[in-house]
Design goal:
With about 325 residues, the protein is of the alpha/beta class. It is about 35% helix and about 20% strand. The relative contact order is 0.19.
Length: about 325
């Protein structure tokens, strides 16, 4: 049977797309899938899909609103969120953000949810005193009793340009633009609020969290019709990750990083495996993320881990 499968260029998922790992009884059919839910995505709402590489910012909301999808404990894209907070020079400490305007591309996303939650719980920032200016927001999922103010911009403009032009006080937004990184990191008028590498390491040491940005979600209809499939998919992703790691250790990988094998060994010694799969290994971060969703009015309540993942994977 065919399994519609997202095209993902992550090193640890490539063995699946290359045909080096099989999902027994299924043939992978790669296709482009939507990572964001800023409007109605009929295929995700009705379950007319296979697997999707989805931004975590929409995962609990979609399940709570009855969309026919369910999460798999496969956080295949993680990013250290502290690196995405740039501020004007007038802001020198987290509490200085209160009463200020933060620009972002879309609200919410995994980055806005996680970093806002971290600022609140770990740095004492009052979310009710934050004002957000977003280029767009989800038009299908409501917000409930949200403490923060979110305004949709009349004119679309990159958040980093708004900060560099002095229109806003800070940005918290994904940046996938090399020129934007150069402009922000070289500007004398803005800076990162945190030494993000040190803060990421501290977060990992104290909580075990390496912040997840995307996960694999599965059609809930497909899961109901094929009760063993979720677990088979999970096993295939684990096997693909092991193969990708072994490629690096064998010095056979083709990535443009000097001494990649040595850096990988160093990372493993320092961090273990930051890309851990499974419910048990990700229970704390999932519960934290669910709490942030409830606190920020993205869901009506703090959803349980068991509601967010396919039943066939709950023992992973």
């Amino acid at each position: 049977m065919d399994l519609r499968f997202p095209i993902m260029r992550y090193d640890h998922t490539m063995p699946l797309l290359e045909g080096r790992v099989d999902i027994p009884g299924w043939t992978i059919k790669p296709e482009r899938t939507p990572a964001m839910i800023t409007g109605d995505v009929e295929s995700l709402r009705t379950g007319d899909f296979g697997l999707c590489d989805l931004n975590t910012g929409y995962w609990p909301q979609a399940i709570e609103e009855g969309w026919e999808l369910i999460g798999l404990p496969l956080f295949i894209k993680r990013k250290p969120v502290y690196q995405y907070l740039f501020v004007s020079n007038a802001i020198q400490k987290p509490s200085d953000l209160e009463g200020k305007t933060i620009a972002t591309n879309f609200y919410p996303t995994g980055i806005t949810t996680l970093l806002q939650g971290l600022l609140t719980e770990r740095h004492g920032v009052d979310p009710s005193k934050l004002s957000w200016l977003a280029n767009g927001e989800s038009k299908v999922f409501p917000r409930y009793d949200a403490p923060q103010t979110v305004t949709i911009a009349d004119e679309r403009k990159n958040p980093w340009d708004r900060l560099l032009d002095g229109e806003v006080d800070a940005i918290i937004s994904d940046i996938s633009d090399g020129d934007a990184w150069i402009a922000l990191e070289s500007s004398p008028d803005v800076h990162r609020l945190f030494d993000y590498m040190a803060e990421d390491r501290k977060l990992f040491e104290e909580t075990g969290m390496y912040t997840p940005m995307h996960l694999i979600v599965m059609s809930a209809k497909l899961d109901h019709e094929n009760p063993g499939l979720a677990r088979s998919i999970y096993g295939a992703f684990e096997e693909a990750k092991d193969l990708a790691y072994q490629d690096i250790l064998n010095d056979r990988s083709g990535f443009g990083v000097l001494y990649l094998r040595e850096r990988f060994v160093e990372q493993t010694n320092d961090w273990g495996d930051p890309w851990k799969y499974g419910v048990a290994a990700n229970r704390d971060v999932t519960e934290t993320f669910a709490r942030y969703n409830a606190n920020q009015g993205l869901t009506k309540r703090h959803m349980a881990v068991e509601e967010l993942f396919a039943k066939g994977t709950l023992d992973t």
